[in-house]
Amino acid sequence: SLAEKGGPELEKVVAHPNFFVLATMNPGGDYGKKELSPALRNRFTEIWVPPVIDLDELQGIALERISKFKGPTYQERLLLIVNAMISFWEWFNKLHPGRMLTVRDLISWVGFFDITEESLGPEHALLHGAFLVLLDGLSLGTGISKRDAGELRERCLSFLLQKLRTNTDVTLEVIRRFNVLKLLLLV
């Protein structure tokens, strides 16, 4: 019944036999919150989905999200970039278990890469995306000191630069630019 409509007569609403409701609890700032209110728990079947940790699945998500197709040579280069992302993902989550990267983080990183790759080049887009999406906020509300966050950023940059050196033909200019940034992070 719709009592909120007011008036002397109540209108009865009947759901279609095929009607169903599906709800999710997945807010961006939730950070793994798993509890539902008693009212929601009473009305829904609760299904908890664990985080995605399979590297092949993460690679598939990243490749699916990148929209450009410029031929087989580009696709090979793109696969090397995505593999560097996934290697970083695995390394970072083992390195710093208190701050785990999520699928949402990966999608944001890939989104930044997708938007900026053409203007920055793939290597720069990968590195800038890592900082803007993942690393710049390390000392904000995480309990990590500014100094420790700077050291962690430096380790992350070194890891990514190493992956790019072995995976792609990154120019010395890319490495030079980010080595200057590396020095600034230690100050």
Automatic annotation (TrEMBL):
Gene3D superfamilies: P-loop containing nucleotide triphosphate hydrolases (3.40.50.300). It holds the Pfam family MDN1_4th. Residues 80-136 form the Midasin lid domain. Keywords: ATP-binding, Nucleotide-binding. GO terms for cellular component: nucleus; preribosome, large subunit precursor. GO terms for biological process: ribosomal large subunit assembly; ribosomal large subunit export from nucleus. The keyword Nucleotide-binding applies. Signal peptide: none annotated. The keyword Nucleotide-binding applies. InterPro entries: MDN1_AAA_lid_4 (IPR048617), P-loop_NTPase (IPR027417). GO terms for molecular function: ATP binding. This is Midasin lid domain-containing protein.
